UniProtKB/TrEMBL annotation:
Protein name: SnoaL-like domain-containing protein
Coiled coil spans: none
InterPro entries: NTF2-like_dom_sf, SnoaL-like
Pfam families: SnoaL_2
Domain SnoaL-like: 10-113
Length: 162
């Protein structure tokens, strides 16, 4: 197992344990993160997002939380992982099973430089928001609004932490 695969295993093992500090340490200072809900730059934002999400999950109790990962592959510069999260979406209190494919690039030191998660947003929105997600989840405007809301939530969270 190479250094970059070890970084991914450390990252997802920490995520399963809701250990955002260890997750954040897996990223380079100038790392970027992208998924349907977030577009982030720098360890402060990326690590802040993981802290926010882990804190929210811990605050509701871990009863509904479970993370599974597999298919960890990495070479000297790129990597891939498959992961699945089971949790209760805090807004609608609905149970979600999200299936994600992750792509990475790494620094020479074995830290995550770029991280891009892809998942079926419409599937996620149907689970997380019910009928509203079913009707609106496929519309680009809905996704855009969600990104704005997650940006506001992260900005408020980071302001409280500094």
């Amino acid at each position: 197992m190479n250094n970059n695969e070890q970084t991914l295993i450390r990252f997802y093992s920490a995520f399963a344990a809701l250990d955002a500090d260890t997750m954040a340490k897996c990223y380079a200072d100038d790392a970027t993160f992208e998924d349907p809900a977030f577009s982030l730059k720098g360890r402060r934002e990326v690590g802040g997002m993981w802290h926010m999400l882990c804190d929210a999950t811990k605050s509701k109790g871990r009863d509904d939380w479970r993370l599974e990962f597999r298919d960890i592959h990495a070479d000297d510069t790129t990597g891939h992982a498959h992961w699945e999260a089971h949790y209760r979406f805090r807004v609608a209190k609905r149970v979600v099973h999200n299936i994600i494919e992750a792509e990475f690039t790494f620094t020479p030191e074995g830290l995550i430089a770029t991280h891009k998660d892809t998942f079926d947003f419409w599937r996620w929105s149907r689970q997380a928001m019910g009928l509203g997600g079913l009707i609106l989840g496929w519309i680009p405007f809905f996704r855009s609004q969600m990104r704005k809301q997650t940006r506001v939530a992260l900005t408020k969270y980071l302001a409280k932490k500094t």
